[in-house]
Design goal:
CATH class: Alpha Beta
Radius of gyration: 13 Å
Number of helices: 3
CATH topology: HIT family, subunit A
Largest sheet: 5 strands, antiparallel
Oligomer: single chain
Number of strands: 5
CATH superfamily: HIT-like
Length: about 110
Amino acid sequence: MSDCLFCKIVAGEIPANLIYETDQAIAFFDIDPKAPTHILVIPKVHYDNVTELTRSDVALAGHLLDVVTQVIQQETLIRGYRLVANTGPDGGQTVDHVHFHILGGRELTWPPG
């Protein structure tokens, strides 16, 4: 998608602070962090949201969760973390490219908001 922010990051058109990469996914620090550790994990292929992804490519969905696990270990979030996939406008999704937020580095409150 030519106007998708995350597709532009995947293509190298917009810089990002990459911390993990596979042939199918990348992980990078969020530019507007909501916790001391705030990392995004995205597929390199465009899917609008997590529902579209899981209906179309279950293997990639599993791969993304494996990337999440690798990043959590790399960042040593041993006290815990929150994994979030905002979906749709009411769910707080602001970029229409499936992505997982990894939030950690402090005690997180509930409910989130």
